[in-house]
Specification:
3 domains, 13 strands, Rossmann fold, Heat Shock Protein 90, 591 residues, alpha/beta, elongated, 5-stranded parallel β-sheet
């Protein structure tokens, strides 16, 4: 296992960061220093000559401006060595120290009290330098020495001045304190720089750990995508043949076997779809299409579909009063969120009920899913939203899914910009709430979803061109589509499609994304559209890698993932065939 070597001195990385740090602070630190200079000048105003006072303030301002300009440029002067640039930093701070030490030119004109106050300001500026320069001793010493030496000379001069014995005693104490204070500040600077180096080591180790975690996450995504593809290919074939088998006349026992096969395939397909949802969200290709739609109608439909599952578990699925108000969001993605939350509640509730409510509030509509399950411990309430984490499923019972439901819920809620909240009590249950905008508060141009959009005419009579390099998939597609009354043509890839000049124009092309060799479904669709401009097309793939999803999205092609449910396939075929020709992604054929 790789380790990060600790830093014990100013390595090149540290020196570069020091230059960046001085550059970032180049314009902020001088403001405080200049403020202290103005206060010292105020003390001397009316006592020292105005020209001397203003001249000193101007010298400090010009020196600080020069220092800021040089420090700001140093990180970008790569042609100069780091050592040289750090020496320039020392020079700039040394000049600043000399300019500030010039305040003691006002010393002869000040009274005893003003001198003490002036010394306090100078000491405060020195103390601030520890933080501003992170205790880097070469720079801090260059800044500190001119100030301390000049101040020390003036205080020692008081010791040698006859008269005022009490003040000479105070000056002696002050000189002793200055010496002690200087030593302490040097020690503080050294400790500050040591902490800075330790913090640098820690941040570097964290950065390396973060890079490793991100690399592991990318490897996980690639592995899941690859594994998902390898599983989806035979799953898709099984689904096609199983659906075709169910359409044939069967005896009762064989029909029961076919139904059980379909149930098992649907369960596996649901788990693969959860992995696909994560891949789509990682790829950033999930499009949000907000419309105004009857929210209560959606909730009742989903509840009716899940009610048999609740009844089999001996649970009550209660639907509260649903106000007849339209919501404004993406109904497809919201339904995914709702199904995940209800499925989760039904899965973990052993007895009692799951309740679905919709409340109208002053700020919008609040959708609530509450259960009488075991509740979630306080220390687990954040972890349940992590990927592949399941509460109370140490045995990894496959019937409880993969632990992706709530992770997908949170990410979809964020994508929809819906506030998601969770309240849970041990032994009492859990409630999730979603805040959904009203349609009345949506933009005037917002679309409205209608039930007619979901109605799909039959696919009977359509000419479908299937492009796939797997013989089993081609035969499964042919068996299924011909059983539904479609005319089916077959091609094994782009080359075969280009050579078969006898084939008539199809109504739609169903192309597998990954074909043999360097061939792919996008190339096949381009070939088909060069031959039959504007022909409808769908990509079908078992590859869930984010890069593949982005490729399909960039090509403007709709992508279905294996195994494709029969009703989903039929609905997608009808939607693409009936799509307005002007809306077809013409740029695919022009590529």
């Amino acid at each position: 296992m790789d380790t990060v070597a600790p830093l014990t001195g100013p390595s090149e990385l540290v020196e570069r960061e020091l230059l960046d740090l001085f550059a970032r602070r180049s314009w902020r630190v001088p403001l405080a220093v200049m403020f202290a200079a103005v206060l010292i000048a105020t003390l001397a105003w009316g006592k020292a000559p105005h020209g001397l006072t203003l001249g000193w303030v101007l010298a400090v301002a010009l020196t600080l401006a020069l220092r800021a300009a040089v420090l700001w440029r140093l990180p970008h002067l790569e042609r100069w060595s780091l050592k040289l640039r750090l020496r320039l930093v020392m020079l700039m701070y040394g000049l600043s120290g000399v300019a500030y030490a010039g305040s003691f030119a006002l010393w002869p004109y000040l009274g005893d009290l003003e001198r003490a106050v002036q010394s306090m300001f100078v000491l405060a500026v020195c103390a601030g330098g520890v933080v501003a320069q992170v205790g880097y001793l070469p720079v801090f010493t260059a800044y500190l020495l001119p100030l301390f030496l000049t101040m020390g000379v003036y205080w020692v001069e008081i010791l040698a001045t006859p008269g005022k014995p009490w003040w000479r005693g105070a000056a002696g104490v002050m000189a002793l304190l200055l010496s002690t204070y200087g030593v302490l500040m040097l020690a503080l600077a050294r400790d500050t720089y040591r902490l800075y180096l330790q913090n640098f080591d820690t941040r570097r180790e964290l950065s390396v750990a973060l890079e490793r975690a991100e690399a592991a996450n990318r490897a996980k995504t690639r592995f899941l995508a690859s594994a998902s593809h390898d599983l989806r290919q035979p799953m898709h074939t099984l689904t096609l043949f199983s659906a075709a088998l169910s359409m044939r006349p069967l005896d009762e026992r064989t029909r029961l076997i076919a139904q059980q096969m379909n149930t098992a395939l649907q369960a596996l397909g649901t788990q693969l779809d959860a992995l696909l949802d994560v891949s789509k969200l990682d790829a950033g290709v999930v499009a949000v299409k907000p419309v105004a739609f009857p929210l209560a109608q959606l909730l009742r439909r989903v509840a009716d579909e899940l009610e048999p599952l609740a009844r089999r578990k001996g649970l009550q699925l209660v639907v509260g009063a649903l106000p007849a108000e339209d919501g404004f969001t993406d109904p497809v993605l919201l339904e995914r969120v709702l199904r995940n939350l209800l499925d989760n509640a039904l899965k973990y509730t052993v007895q009692g009920s799951v309740r679905l409510d919709l409340r109208s509030t002053a700020t919008g509509l609040v959708l609530a899913i509450a259960d009488t399950g075991p509740g979630i411990p306080p220390d687990e309430r954040e972890r349940v939203f992590e990927e592949f984490y399941q509460l109370g499923n140490a045995e990894r019972d496959h019937r409880q899914g993969l632990g992706l439901g709530l992770s997908i819920v949170r990410r979809l809620a964020g994508l929809l910009q819906l506030d998601l909240a969770m309240r849970s009590e041990l032994g009492q249950g859990t409630e999730f709430t979603l805040h959904i905008p009203r349609a009345s508060e949506a933009p005037a141009s917002a679309a409205r979803a209608t039930a007619a959009e979901a109605e799909a005419p039959a696919v009977r009579g359509l000419h479908v061109l299937v492009v796939d390099d797997e013989d089993s998939v081609r035969q499964g597609m042919r068996t299924l589509l011909e059983g539904m009354g479609c005319q089916v043509s077959i091609a094994t890839g782009t080359a075969a499609l280009a050579e078969d000049l006898a084939a008539g124009r199809p109504d739609i092309v169903l192309a597998d994304f990954r074909l043999r060799g360097d061939d792919d479904g996008i190339a096949a669709v381009r070939c088909a559209r060069q031959r039959w401009p504007g022909v409808a097309a769908l990509l079908i793939s078992g590859d869930t890698a984010p890069a593949r999803l982005r490729e399909a999205d960039a090509a403007g092609l709709r992508l279905l993932h294996k195994p494709v449910a029969v009703d989903q396939l039929m609905r997608a075929i009808v939607e693409e065939v009936t799509r307005d020709t002007d809306a077809a992604p013409a740029h695919v054929s022009a590529a």
